[in-house]
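Suppose you are handed a protein chain with no further information: no name, no annotation, nothing but its sequence. What can you learn? This example shows the usual starting point.
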Amino acid sequence: MVDQKEKNRKKALIILQVVVYGYLLAMFLIQLYMSFARGWWEL
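A reasonable first move is to predict its three-dimensional structure. Written in structure tokens, the prediction is:
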């Protein structure tokens, strides 16, 4: 019983980390896209 709970807890933590890092990455990419869209960087 304890092992199953431990497994679920680890899985939940991994999922949480993926969600958080995915969110941060999305924010970063949106910022980057906005800066390119505004023409701050001349390509």
